[in-house]
Amino acid sequence: MNAHQPNNKTFNKTARAVLFFIGLLAYAYQNTIPPPPNLCGSSHGPPVTGPRVILRDGRHLAYHEYGVSRDTANYKIVFVHSFGACRYDESVYHPELFEELKIYMVAFDRPGYGESDVDPKRTIKSFASDIEDLADKLELGSKFYVISYSMGMQGGWGSLKYIPHRLQGVALISPVVNYWWSSFPTNVSWEAYKLQPLQDQWAVAVSHYVPWLVYWWNTQKLFPGSSVIAGRANLSSSDREVLAKSSGQRSPTPIPSLKDYVRQQGLAESIFRDMRVGFGKWEFDPMKLENPFPNNEGSVHMWHGDDDWVVPVNLQRYIAKKLPWIHYHELPGVGHALPKYDPNKEAILKSLLLGEN
Length: 357
Prior knowledge:
Blueprint: H1 8-30, E1 52-54, E2 60-67, E3 75-80, H2 95-101, E4 103-108, H3 124-137, E5 144-149, H4 153-162, E6 167-173, H5 186-193, H6 198-209, H7 214-217, H8 237-246, H9 258-263, H10 271-278, E7 299-305, H11 313-322, E8 326-331, H12 344-354
Helix pairs in contact: 3-4
């Protein structure tokens, strides 16, 4: 036998090692691919239980209306719900004030949530187009208000960038911040980033740098994924207290479980897509936006609590300094669940609609 020729035993060991490595790679790759979404209205998917509009690209957007009728309303609002929520999010709904001021509001399931069709190509720009389409389908008029909460900031900032001509005013409530927006000095964004639990630092970094791993990262069992997705968000004691008080106050909805409804089409195109879009590479930097209301024909408001442990307040302070045309409201002792603290609902609505401080 040639001295340089491997014997059968060595060859077999090498072959088995190679095959094992290939199998491991195949297994790992397979686990990065999420299952296909369980589309609403499909033969095996969840049923469609409420009204939906058809968008310009043929997708459906499910919505829910609050307040007075569109025909009698003095103010028309599009509300963009938070991370892991849906069209039944009543964060800013105040029945008495809606009736008094004649406010109409429409909230909608963001793409992939609830009963709205998925949008695997979703961007901040396409999402702004969804908002504009919804307003046109419901005939809200040439201009309307947008209120966005937490991760719903994609709709708030997107509207300011892409459809400012359609806006009467915008309110951003406890808006999530992308640590990689270019205007942030490294020390500012890094300081805020390090305030997050280690598992959330990793989850956010994966969403930004290797978005194709988001599904695997948050479903594997080797180490913890996002605490927010797992239902163990890094909430302040003030948040926990106010949420405990309001836990039994939610108005009844036509669905038995909000969590199940939110995720019924699958995680990949709802909350995981949110992570990829919210913390991914944006097409623009919000801190470079121009004032959409140079003649004071409308206003933009940002609301944030200084006890918010989910989105560090120093980031909002920096944004407010970069964009002095934003009316910045910082509330002491208030956390991320800002609308649930009395009387913040009234303050948010009256500042946006009536110009009250």
